[in-house]
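Support reply, case 0932

Customer input (verbatim):
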Amino acid sequence: MFTTSISKALRGPFLSIFISFGLILGSSTESVAQEVKLKPVSKSHKTLKTHTRGKVRAKAKKKSEVKQVAIGPIIHEIQVEGTKRLEKDVILNRIQSEVNKSLDREKIREDIQALFALGYFESVEVETKTPPTGLVLIYKIKEKPMISEVTIEGNSELKTEEIQEASGMKAFEIFNQSKLKDGLEKIQKLYEDKGYYLAKITPLISESENKDQVKLVLKIEENDKVKVKKILFIGNQKLSDDYLKGKMATQEEGYFSVVSGSGQFKQDAFERDSQILRSLY
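Our regenerated output:
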């Protein structure tokens, strides 16, 4: 059985395609294991430690490492500080620590992870104080900023509405770094589908007049489309280069490319070409 090996060499806006034909002599399966780790929101947030004053601080640290703290005294009261847009009940309903229950290091660590999982907070800090009335557990919250506006600059080949929808970022929503990353990848894919493999999207984030809000600008450099300069076949003996090229939708750039549109590289067309070439063998 024959197989095709297809590779691409991109040099500036020009692309060369190499297609190699060969005989399958064997096959192998390789297993890849991935380690999944919790990513801390802030370097300064992941340690649980005690002080002589009875103060407990809980912050996120690599691999959620937390120093051992024995089960402590009974919690008399739980307070929440720092919330501006969210109701305090949102935090209280997420944590496991309870009034009239013992202070538990493991539960506090799980509380922090549960609050970070909501995606609303930049930092979570847990402290205790011991007035005469009894132990008070305090959750100090710093909320993520809200997006005040989203602006697209530099686009001409894609409509602003298309880019905004792909970005997933909208005004008056909580700013989420992971969501922004996913949106940038989707915008990049939109440009690649149109042949703009050299397009560059840069997010610019600045503080709004309201310090609890940020402005987001997506600055786009579209650059030139990638053109197919040459298609090379390696190892084909029974079928000629011209015959194989005639079966492909992907074509080399020529004198009449401006009129015919030939020479433009499109990933979906290239993948169909790959299947066609394999079927010929």
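We compared this against your earlier run and they match. Two observations from our side: The first strand starts at residue 2 and ends at 11. Residues 177-193 form the longest helix (17 residues). Please reopen the case if you see a mismatch on your end.
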